[in-house]
Amino acid sequence: xxxxxxTARRGGAPADYAAMSLSPxxxxxxxxxxxxxxxxxxxxxxxxxxxxxxxxFNGNSNSNSSIAAQQAAQLQQTSTTTSSKGxxxxxxxxxxxxxxxxxxxxxxxxxxxxxxxxxxDQRREVSVAQNIANKQIDRTFAxxxxxxxxxxxxxxxxxxxxxxxxxxxxxxxxxxxxxxxTGTGKTxxxxxxxxxxxxxxxxxxxxxxxRAVKCIFDxxxxxxxxxxxxxxxxxxxxxxxxxxxxxxxxxFSDDKSKKPLALMEDGKGGVFVRGLEEExxxxxxxxxxxxxxxxxxxxxxxxxxxxxxxxxxxxxSITIHIKECTPEGEEMIKCGKLNLVDLAGSENIxxxxxxxxxxxxxxxxxxxxxxxxxxxxxxxxxxxxxxxRDSKLTRLLRDSLGGKTKTCIIATxxxxxxxxxxxxxxxxxxxxxxxxxxxxxxxxxxxxxxxxKDLYFQMDRLKQELYAAREKNGVYIxxxxxxxxxxxxxxxxxxxxxxxxxxxxxxxxxxxxxxxYESQKVLSADLSDQLQTLQKRMKETECTLADLExxxxxxxxxIKEKQYLIENLLKSEKVLVGEAQTLRSELENTxxxxxxxxxxxxxxxxxxxxxxxxIQYFHSQLIQEMNxxxxxxxxxxxxxxxxxxxxEEEMQSFVxxxxxxxxxxxxxQCILCLYKPKTAAFFRLPEDFKSM
Length: 692
Description:
Layout: E1 29-30, E2 39-40, E3 49-50, E4 57-58, H1 66-86, E5 93-94, E6 96-101, H2 106-111, E7 117-120, E8 125-132, E9 135-142, E10 145-147, H3 153-169, E11 173-180, H4 186-191, H5 208-222, E12 226-237, E13 240-243, E14 260-265, E15 271-274, E16 278-281, H6 284-297, E17 300-301, E18 309-310, E19 313-325, E20 331-342, H7 349-352, H8 357-381, H9 392-396, E21 406-413, H10 420-433, E22 437-438, E23 446-447, H11 448-471, H12 479-658, H13 662-691
Helix pairs in contact: 1-3, 1-5, 3-5, 12-13
């Protein structure tokens, strides 16, 4: 599954970092109770636990349901697959990371908050849309499992818890922790919505913890196993450890009488919490009550991002001891541990509205989560010293990050655009954590005979101490033990003196180094912040520069095209101007010619009008004259006819008188030729004048 980055929200996954080291190797000791000698199983720490039941409980196979049996078979198969996968290489097993995206809240839907996160359950990818330099850039992260806004609590349980429950029952130490921004559903995922179980059924919104508890009991009962189980509930608030299961000494105490606890080294590279109380449980209902009681004591407060924001980290641990028999009939005790961690969410103080004490809380939360982020980065990059000791949270999670524990991280994010920065931070951290490798180891099994022998030895020692104490009015111990204790005390005193001198010199060196470290740390933090700011600005500038270069190239091409068009247009313009000037001169000449032509036409029309009037006048005069001439000609013709007739008569008389008959015909012919043309012409003349 995919790793997730820290975000703030009231996560509800208590985890187990109790009086034992995170990778508990079971050890047993005797604890006197009410003056009587009684034996109880105790881990290798000074934590006390309540004997509320026998060491081993017999599972009632008659009450097991078929569902529990099927679940046991499924878990056994899952365990086999996971174990073979985890042990396939000597390089270790990667931390499993599951990514869960919550849906938009009613308020976010009401105001129409944009969604920037897209979950692809099939491809196990999450895409986040960013707007940089007016460009949308999508970042995609791949995880072991991705659950979208429509996912149910059962889906988280099936993918994150079921595989680890089988590992716990096989003797491994396993850790599940929720990591994300405040208000993204960590506590809801781990603890649920607050509904209580009805009969034997869990509510649909039950979280990882109650489902894991029910699953463990169902499997143990289905297997008819003899087992014992104990739980612890630890809170880390402002770098102070508190036992949430400790009895309240005063009902009027402001802090509900939570006792601060000390975090100790166990000498084997692990840590344990001194004074952390563990309670024996025999049923899931007991654990539900314990979980409810401890959750009520947790530090919560209302912020602008979450009405019930967890202000502390919580660790709920379940330790299981199971009796099993070897093929030789030897009884063995197998120990497994499940740590369920609910981290407080990282938050932007300006957005969460934290003030004064709340701001200090947020600062401590962010500080511990930043240390967790540095540990994750160091483990992934293999860059030398791992800063586990910089925070109590990382000290508690040391075995879960790069240690011998099987770990699953549930990263929770919001799809809202307002949480984009925190969402990207969570995804970055989760994606890095996915590459951390743990080297899980099965806890060593203890033979029942060795356990009984150890218990008998402790019982004898305690009986001697009890007998010595009853014989005197004070607390006494056997002489042999007293001498041994005094010798040991003297040797320890001498050793202590030497160590104090060494410690004093080391303290001075440490103080100097610490001062130097703090100054370098502040400088490094400032430089880191400046570097991140500059890198962010550089990326934005690079994106802007790339955009400007693209726009510049496009603009340059456009300018070249326009210049080419302008040059062609200028050439065309020059040609057109020349042609226009030529046409203008031609038009001017034509206009002059037209003006002269119109003047000539006007003069011509005037002359024609004048000539027409003159012609009319002469026509009328000519007609009159022709009429006169016609009359004159007619008169002349008639006179000529008379004269010719008279002449003819005279000629006839002359011819007759002269006697030249042969010349008479010639003369007649000549007269006729002379007479006819003249007569015809005179008669046509009036008609010709009329036609004019």
